[in-house]
Amino acid sequence: MDLQETIERFLSDTERRRSDVTVRRYGEAMELLQSHLALERLDPEAPGEPPPGRIEDLTPAAIRSFVHEFLGERLRSNERAQRRYIAATRSFVQWLARARLVSEADGRALLEVLKPPPRTTALD
């Protein structure tokens, strides 16, 4: 299934259930996710345009790269924004699982990558 179309359906569903601020944040997060996936698919040696994004592109490795490298680098000094975008991505993955657009096992694997790291305390 086409990722762009799926994201549009997710955002449309979100508009009915969430505040305008949340919808805007989710939209921003989905734009960043799509940008990251597009960059991942770009191969300078491949002829023509990159293939359109598909749900199958959402692998644990791709999500890990998005969260830890792309967002980490892009939003290095803004942990709050990072948490918001990760939460939006988590919500998207949960929506995919509820809509049965990914298998239960794939949904769990994606959500595992999106779990927040354990907090450390000053005593650790």
Task: Give a verbal description of the structure.
Helices cover 66% and strands 0% of the residues. The chain contains 5 helices and no strands. It has helices at residues 3-17, 20-41, 60-74, 79-98, 104-113. The longest helix is centred in the N-terminal third of the chain and has 22 residues, at 20-41. The protein is globular and about 35 Å long.
List the helices and strands and how they pair.
Elements: H1 3-17, H2 20-41, H3 60-74, H4 79-98, H5 104-113
Summarize the structure.
66% of the residues lie in helices and 0% in strands. The chain has 124 residues and is mostly helical.
What is the number of strand segments?
A: 0
- Ranges with pLDDT <50 over ≥5 residues? none
* Class per helix and strand makeup: mainly alpha
Q: What is the CA-based Rg, rounded?
A: 15 Å
Helix content: 55-70%
How many distinct helices?
A: 5
Q: What would you call the shape?
A: globular
Report strand %. under 5%
Give the key terms.
66% helix, 5 helices, 124 residues, mainly alpha
